Structure prediction request, 518 residues.
Amino acid sequence: MEHDEHVRAARRLAPAWNELREQRVLQRIQAEPRIGAHERPRGALFAIAAAAVLLVAFGWFAVRGRRVEVAANAPTPTVAPVSEAQVMLHDGSLVRLVGDARVAVQEQSSTSVRLTQTKGLARYEVTHAPARAFVVAVADAEVEVHGTTFTVELTEKTVKVKVVEGNVLVRGDGRAVKLTTGEALEVAAWRSPVQVAPSVTATTTATISVAPSVKPKPTVEALLAGADQARAEGRLDDAAEQLRTLVTTYPGDPRAASAWFTLGKVERGRGRHAAAAAAFAKVSGALAEDALAEEATSWKSAGDAARARTTAKRYLELHPKGLHAQRMLLLAE
Amino acid sequence: MALARPSPVAVPVDDARLVELVRGGDSRAFATLYHRHARYLAGVVFRLTGREPDVDDVLQETFLDALSAIHQLRDPAGLRSWLAAIAVRRVHKRLARRRRLRFLERAVELVSPKASDPHDQRRVDELYEVLETLSPDTRLPWVLHHVEGETLPAVAELCNVSLATVKRRIAEAEEKIDRRLHGAR
Prediction:
């Protein structure tokens, strides 16, 4: 062929692809407007994936401008653009997230819905279902309802609960306060001083005490979800912290291996190539082959050619016909 | 289709299993599939279109198309090829639209991807200038075969045309590219 050189040059072309860009495209897929309109059956599958990624892969849904629904028995969660973040739960309850509010779904079943609010202001429009407990855990308090509309705002020092309609029960420090339409309650978050107002009216704000308590250890699921969310938002420092917490807190968990792998990718994204290599070195199991190749590459990026070479050779010994063998051959030279 | 909660083990197995999980509504499996194939597809799309901005759009469209048709995938183990075929279709549409717009505007936009190696840039510029003059029907098979290194049957599969058609189109592209590049020297 006369144009071999041109072809070879074209073969070497590669887009400026990196993890953040990859994540941005994934977010675009999630935010795709055509996803999820109920009147468009074809959207169901789109919806499943997009909402799934939002609600489950990431777990958290501090996502602006999207609406997420999860249907009950044959869930066809949907995502459609709206002006503010909304989360529709499988029982039809709606959570509206204001600003940078964050809420995580801990449990959804016919008898119990449990959410954790970790930041900001959210409005809950809970469908009436006497047989189902609907609980929002916020700081050290819990808000339990069966069918109502209320808002919860978590600031650095306080949790504010305001009932728009219906009744809610706010629990904290072994006590409970019932609020009805128009009433509001301010609860000290975490370790603040305590005082219970003599009465709670529609126009006043009461304060009850919440005793200091030991914060529960975050679950593996919560850490993974938090890390995914942080990565999705480009907060790589946060993602790294969550993943490190996971692998140090739950070293024996089967998900620790993938967490190490992800941590390696996150560290690489942060430009910390030696840390990335160290993380990849911890990976075992199904991802071990990929991780070994990534480790070699990371050592190379870190400027440690000797370790890159050694690692690449180890890869070739273990996986002479592996997926990354060609790349490792170059590093091993 | 039910949306399952994320599978507790985030370490996927093979594509076939992941496809099965995605069909069952497992979102983590979808995310894993995406991350597994996105980079590869990005590379292919970039070399096919020659334009960075197209990569994100085509990938987005590709995965959305894939999700809508995941139940029609007959060979889940062949997911990557299937995704690539979808991407090729999307690129075809995009290139065709680009050509139509260019004709309407009576303007030729020089589209040339940025080479990683500066030494390659001149040849890349020359090649993609020629590729821009080709129809998508001839351009895509040629790039897939010569640049991506796909076999002729694979190109036929990716372009959804017969082997004979692929050969003819590649030959046609080959002739034009040769003529243009030689003329440029």
In short: Residues 220-332 of chain A form a domain with the Serine Threonine Protein Phosphatase 5, Tetratricopeptide repeat fold (CATH 1.25.40.10). The CA atoms of residues 19 and 272 of chain A lie 14 Å apart.
